[in-house]
Amino acid sequence: MLPFETGLTLPPFLTGLTEAPLTLLLASPVFGALLLALLGHLRIGAWINIAVCALTTACAVWLAVEVARGATIVVYHELFFIDSLNVFLVTLTAFVGLTTSMFSRPYMRIERDQGRMTGPRMRLYHAMYQLFLAMMLCALTTNNLGVLWVAMEAATLCTVLLVSVYRTPASLEAAWKYFILCGVGIAQALFGTLLLYLAADRVIGAGEGALLWTHLNAVKTQLEPTILSLAFVFLLLGYGTKTGLVPVHHWLPDAHAEGPTPISAVLSGLLLNVALYAILRCKVLADGALGNGLPGRAMVAFGLMSVLLAAFLLLRQRDIKRMFAYSSIEHMGLITFAFGLGGPVANFGGLLHMTMHSLTKSAIFFAVGHAAQKAGTQVMDEIRGLLQISPTVGWGLMLGSLAILGMPPFGVFASEFVILTSAMRQLPWAAPVLLLALAVAFAAVMARVQPMVFGETNVKRLPHPPALVPVFLHLGLGLALGLYIPPFLVSWYMRAASLIGG
Amino acid sequence: MIALLTQAINLFAAILLILAFAMITQRRILSLIHLFTAQGLTLVAATIDVGYLTAQHHLYASAAATFALKVVLLPVLLHRLTDRLQVRWDVEPLLNIPLTMLIGILLVVFAFNLASPIAALSASIARSTLGVALASVLLSFLMMITRAKAVPQVIGFLSMENSLFFAATAATNGMPMLVELGIALDVLMGFLILGVFLFQIREQFDSLDIHHLERLRED
Amino acid sequence: MLDLDRILTVIAIWVGIGIVALVAPRRTRFVAHGLFPISAAASVALIVAAVQGLWLPPQSVVLRLGLPGLPFHLRMDSLAAFFLAAIGATSAGTSIFSAGYLRKGEGTAPGLQCLQYHLFLAGMALVVLADDAYAFMVAWEVMALASYFLVIANHRVPAIRRAGYLYLLLAHVGAIAILLCFGVLQANTGDFTFANLRVQSLSPFWASVAFVLALIGFGAKAGIVPLHVWLPEAHPAAPSPASALMSGIMLKTAVYAMLRIAFDLLNQQLWWWGALLLGLGLLTALFGVVFTTVQTDMKRLLAFSSIEHVGLIFVGTGLAMMFRSYGMPALAALALTATLFHVAAHALFKSLLFLGTGTVLHATGERNLGKLGGLIRMMPWAAWLTLVGALAASGLPPLAGFVSEWLLLQTFLFTTDLPMSFLNMLVPLVAAAVALVAALSGYAMVKFFGVVFLGQPREEKLKRARDASWLERIGLAWLASGCVALGLFPVPVIDAIDRVTRMLVQYGLADTVDANGWLLLAPTSVQRASYSPLIFLLVVAATITFTALAVRILYHGRLRRAPPWDCGYPHQTARMQDTSEGFGQPIRQIFEPFFWMRRDLPSPFDARPRYRVVIEDRFWHWIYQPVQHAVERVARLAGRVQQGRISIYLMYSFVTLVVMLLLVGR
Amino acid sequence: MISPLGFLAQMLQFAVALAAAPLLTGWVNQCRAWMQNRRAPSLLQPYRLLHKLFYKEPVAADSASLLFRATPYVVFGCMALACGIIPALSTDLPLAPAADAIALVGLFALARVFISLAAMDVGTAFGTLGARREMLIGFLAEPALLMTLFSASLISDSTSLVAIVHKIAHSQFQIYPSMAFAGVAFTIVSLAENARVPVDNPATHLELTMVHEALILEYSARHLALLEWAASLKLFAYSCIGLALFLPWGVAEINAPLAMLYALPVLAVKLAVGGFLLALIETVSAKMRIFRVPEFLAAAFLLAVIGLLVHRLLGA
User: Fold this and answer.
1) Minimal Cα distance from B212: which residue of C?
2) pTM above 0.95, yes or no
3) Which of C290, C246, C16, C209 is nearest to C120 (CA)?
4) What values do phi and psi take at C65, rounded to 5?
5) ipTM at complex level
6) Which of D103, D97, D24, D19 shows the shortest CA–CA distance to D278?
7) Is the confidence at residue C196, as pLDDT, over 80?
8) Cis, peptide link before residue C58, omega less than 30° from 0
9) Measuring CA to CA, which residue among C253, C193, C259, C303 is closest to residue C500?
10) Chain C residues with CB inside 8 Å of B216's CB?
C-alpha cells in the first residue's frame, strides 16, 4: 500500500500555505549536502556550509512564526507535521547548527593547517554535517514513526563518519563502538516500532496510517497495553542508547572525545535532544495506552541512574571533552527524569532544560575546542591559565562551566530549579539524591576548570583569532533566558508540555 | 495446499532459529557467512509465502529487495572482505560454546513466554512465529556479545537485522513499503561503512581483534 | 517615589557602574577615581532610604523577571531595611576606600574587579530584598559568584586558587541545602513566594528539618563551625575591600536569612533550635577566638575573629529563639537587639580592620605578622584609625563592640526561670564562656595591633612604608566614625532595631529605653542596669585633660628623648621583640586540645637551628578528608562500569533489556 | 536631676579616692615590712615618690609614639572614673548610672589594653614580654571578676553597683552561699590584677618574673608617677569593690548627709583591715611561676562560675 493512498488530505489552501517553509527547511540541508559533496574541500566550502545553515535557520524561524500563528501543521499526506513540541526543537536545531558551522569554519581551518584534516576529509566532513542536520530535521518533523527510525539511523551513520574523520586509532575505536552500540540500540528501537505497528494494526488497520503519530495519538487509549508496554521497553532502550542513558551510554564519552569538536557540540547539543524527542513521542502513546504511569517510572529510574553515575564519573576525567560528555549524560538524565515525572510543570522544566543544555553545552564545546587547539592537547592537566593567552576563551570556558553547573543567573539554573522543585512535590526522596549528584558534579568540574582558566599559563598563542561570537551568543541567550523568559516562548513550552502530558 | 504453506511458515521459523543457534556455535567465519546467506534465503522464502497467503503484493517487492540485498549483495561483499582481510577463524569466543548454548536456550524460553500473549493478539497468520523472531533477535545479540573479532560482530549485527525483518513479516505482514525501503537503505549504508571501517581498523591495528579497541576507558 | 524604588535605583546604579567599567577595563584611573566615588554616593543614598524604610510599612514590588510562574518578588520590611542600612554604611566606606586602593597589575583588570565588586553589592542587597525562593537563590548565588571572582582576583597564586575553589564549593553545597529548605517550607503547595511560605504551618518534624537545612546552608556562609573552613582561606586571598565586604556584610546576609526563616517564614520555634544555635554559636565563638590569637597572618587573624563574632551573633539569635519559643517576648527582644546591634557593629569595625590591613599590605607588601611592626610612625593615619577598629573589636567601652556585648550579658543576667531546669543551669555557663570570649578577643586585638603597628619595624623596607592615600583615609575615617557613633549613641540605634524586633518577636525596647532619655541606655530600668557611654567618655576625657593641665601647671611639660632603656641592655634589635608566635604561645599551651599542631623543635646540636610550628584545624581531619575519600572511593567504583570492552558494553545493554522485559512481562 | 547632695557625695568620693589611694598602698607596704621584720617606710612614702617623679624630667624612647605618651593619662583617667562609680562612701552617686558592673570591668579592660599597647610601642624585649603576660593574666581575670560581680547582681538582680550595695546592705541580713565562692574568686582576681604576690611582685625587676614592672619599664618621671598613682587607685578601687560586695555596711544612703560623716571613718577602718589582710597574704604566700598563673586564675574563674550555679541551684 503506497503512501498517497491513505490518510486524510488537507484543504489545499492550508497545504499551499504551509508546505513551503517545511519543504525548504528539509530541502536546503540536503541540497547543501550535495553541493558540499562537490565543493566541500575548497576554502569556500566552509562559507557555503554557513550559508546553507543560515537558510535552514531562516526557514525554521519562518516555520516557528507560522506555528505561533496557527496550530499544528500537517503536510505531505501527513508524512510531516509540526506542532508546538517539535517546532522549538526544529528552531533550536537549526540555530545551533548555524552557530556550530560558524564556529567550525576557523576551527577546521586550523585543523587542516595542522594536517589533521585533508581536502577529501573536509569534503566528507562538510557533506556529512549537512546530511546530519537534514536527517535530524527530518526525524524531528516526520509524523511517521518508521521514518523517524530511518532518520535516526541515518543520522547515526553520518555522525559515525564524522567521529572517525581523523582516522586516528582512538577515533576509529570510538566510531566503531559508537556504530555497534548504537546500531544494536537502534535495532531494538526498530523492534519496538514493529510492536507499535502491530498494536496499531489492530485498531487502525495495516498500512501507512498505522505508523503516523497523529493517528496513533488519536487512538492511543485503545492500543493494546501488553504490546505497548513491551514496545515502550524496546523503544526506550533503543532511543535511550542514543540519548546516552545509563547503563547504555557507553558510546557517548568516546564519540564526544575523539571526534572533531564541532561534532561533539552538535552531538551533545542536538542529537541527544532528538533521540529524547523520539522517546517522548513514544512515551505519549505508551502513557495513553497503559495509563499506569509505567513509562514515567522507567524514565525516572533511568534518569536518576544517569545523573548519579555521570556525576561520580566526572570526578575521574582527564580529557576535557570527555568530561563535558559525561556532563551531557548527567543533564540528559536530568531531563529524562523531568519528563518521567510528567505533569505540566516538570515537562516545562524538561523542555526548558533541553534548550538551555544545548545552548550552554555547545557553547562550552566551542570554548573547549579553541582551548584544546591552543594547548595542543585535550588532557586537562596540560592546559593551564587560558585567561592570560586569550581572555575570551578563558571566560567563555569559565562562565560556560558555571552555567552548565547550574549557577544562577544562567538559564540552566532556572530549569533545574523548576525540575527540582517539581521533584520535591512529586518525588520528595529523589530531590536530595539529585542535589547530591549536582554537588558532586560541581566539585568535579570546577576542580578541573579553575586551573585551566586561571593561574600561570603554559599555552602558546595561535596566529588566528578564535571565533567566539557563537560562544558568547549562546551564553548571552542562556543568561537572558535565566533572567527573563519571553511570554511567547512560555506559551510555546506550555503547549508542548501539555502535549507531552503524563 | 494453503494449510501446507501456513505450516511452512512455522517451518521457516524453526529453520531460522536453528540457523541462529548454528551461528552462535560456529567459529569459522566462512561458514558464518554461509549461515547468514541461508538465513537470508529463509527470510525470502518466508516473505514470499506470507505474501502469497495474505495476497499482499508489496511483500513480493520486499522479498525481492531482501533477496538482492541479503542473499546476493551482502554475502558477496562479506566474501570479498574476508578474502581481502584474510580472516578465516575467529579466536576463542569470550564465553565457551556450551555455556553460550545454555544461555541461548534460556533466551528462547524467555522469548516464547514473552511473545505468546502478544502473538495471541496478532491478526497475522504467522503470529505464532513472533516468539521465534524475538528469540533469534536475542540470540544474535548474544552472538555479538560473545564474539571477539570484528567481522563476526558485523555478521551478528546483520543477522539481527534479518530477524527483525522476519518479525516484521511474521507479525504484521511487513512494515509499510516506505519504511522497509528506508530500513534496507540504512542497512546497506551501514554495512558499507562497516566495511570501510574494517579496513581502516585493520590498517591502524593490523588486526581485527577487538581487544585492541579497549583503550578508551575509565580506570 | 516609593522607598523601595529608590533602593532599586541604587542597585541599578551599582550594576550600571559595573557595566560602564567594562568599557575601559584597564583604565585604572578612570575606574578608581571616576566610578567608585559614585557608587559610594549611591551607598549613602541607600543608607538614607533604608533608614526611612525602617519606619515605613512593608513595601513590595513584583519585577517582570524570573520564571514565568514565579517572577521576582521583592519586599522591604524593617528587617530588610535594617540590613540594607548596614550594607549601605559599610559599602560607602569600602567603596570610597577602593577608589584610592585600586592598583594596576594586581590580578584581574580593575574594570572587571569593579564589575564583580558591584555585582557583589547588588547581589547582597537583593538577597535582603528577595521575597520568593527563586529570586533569593539567584541573588544568593550571584553574591557567591561575584565574591568568588573577587577572591581569586589575584589568581596567579596557587594558594589563592585553592581558597577560591574551597569557598565556591562550600557556598554551593550550602546553596543546595537552602534550596532543599525552601522545598520543605513550601509544604507541597508548589508556590515558592515567601508570602505563601509564611502561611504554611508545618508539623514540628518538617519545621525542624527545614530549620536544620537552613542552619547548614546559611551556617556554611556565615562560617559556623564546622562549616567554617573556607573562611580563613578566602578572606586573606581576596583584595582587602572585598574581604571587608565579605566579612563585614556577606556573613551578615546569612544571619539575615537565618532570622528571616526562623522568625518570619517558620511560624513556630522549638526551644531546642535555640539551644542548638546557642551551642553552635558558642563553639564557633570560642573556636574562632582561640584560633585568632595564634594566627601569624594578619588577614587570617581577622578572618578567624570574624568567625568568633559570627559565633556571638548566633549565640544571641539562639537565645532569642529560645525565649520566643517559651513565650518571653521581652527577653527575646533584648537578645535580638543585642544580636542586631552586634551585626551593625561588627559590619563596621571588621571592615575597618580589613581596610586597615589593606593599606598595610599596599605599603609593605607583607601579610605576615613576623615581618611587620612599628608602622604607627610611618603611617599614623592608618594606625590610629585602625586602633579605633581594634578597640571596638575587643569590645571595650565606649565603642561600638562593647554595647552589644553589654546587652548580650544583660540578657543572660535577666534570664530567669526558663521552664527547663538544665537550661537554667546552662545559662550562667554560657555567660561565662561569652565573657571569656570577649576577654580573649581583647588579647587577640592587642596582638594584632601591637605586632603590626607598634614596636620596632621587623624589616628594613618597612621604614619606607607610605601612609594611606587621602581617599583611603576618608574610607577608614568613615567607618571609624561609625564605630564611635554607634558606641556613643546606642539609643537611636536601638530605636531603629526596635522596629525589627517588633516585627520578629512582637516586642521592642524602644519605649523603655527612650523613657530614660537618649543619654542613658537602660534596657529595662535604671535600677536594674544602665550604661551611658557619652558620660563615661566625657568623665574620662575630663580627668585626662584636668590631670594633664594640672601636671603642666604644678610642675612642667618638658620631655627628653633617649634610646630605649630596656633594663640597660645595650644593643637591642627588632628581632628581640615578641613575634606573633611568641604572643600566641600561652594560648597555644592553655587551649592545646583545640589545635592540631605539628612542632619542629631544633636539637641542641643543630648547626642552623629552625623552630617551626604548624597549627591546623582538627575539623579538617575529622570531617572534610573522610568525606573526600568516600566520594573518591565511590567514583573509583563508578569508573569500573566504563572499562572499554565493547562486549561488556553490549552485555550491559543486553542485561538491561532482559531485566526490563522481565519487569514488564509480568 | 543631680541633687546637690549627690554632687557633693560624688566629689567627696573622687577626692577621697585620689587622696587616699597612695595612702592605702603605703599602709600595705608598711604592714608587709612589719611582718617581714623590716623597718617600715613612712606612710607618706608614696606621696613623696609621686612628688619626686612629677618633678623630674621625663625621658621617652626615641621610637616612642604619641600612644606611649598618652597612655598614662588614659589609664589614670580610667582608674579615676572607676573609683568614682564604686559606692564606697555613699550610694547616692550621680555618675553611678553611667557605668554598671559590666562597664566597670570594661573600664579596667580598657586601661589594661592601653598599657599593654604602650608597653609594646617602644619595641623592647621586656615591653612586649610584659604586655603578653599582662594580657594573659587579664583574659582570665576579667571574666572571673565579671562572674563574681554577676553572682552579686543575681542576688540584687541588678548590675548596677549602687543597687547591689543597697540590696545587700540595707535589706535585712541574709547569708548568700554563692558569695562565699565569689569571695574566694574575687580575692584571687584582685591579687592578680593588682600585681601582688603570688602572681607578681611589684618590688622586683627580675626579668623572669616581672609583669607590671615590665609594662612600665620605659616610663619615667610624670608618666611613671601617673601610672603608679593609677596603680594605687586600682588597688583602692578593687578594695572598694570587695567591700561593696562582701561587707557593704556603713555606706551612706541616698540623701542621708549625716550618714556620710560616719561612712568615711568606717571606710577607713575597713580599708585598713583589708590592706592588712592583703599584706598578710603577700607575706605568707610565695611567688609562683608565670606558667602556674593561668591555672591559678582559671581556678578563680571556675569558682566564680560555681558561685553562679550555686545561686541558681539554691536560689540564693
Assistant:
1) C645
2) no
3) C246
4) -110, 180
5) 0.90
6) D24
7) yes
8) no
9) C259
10) 644
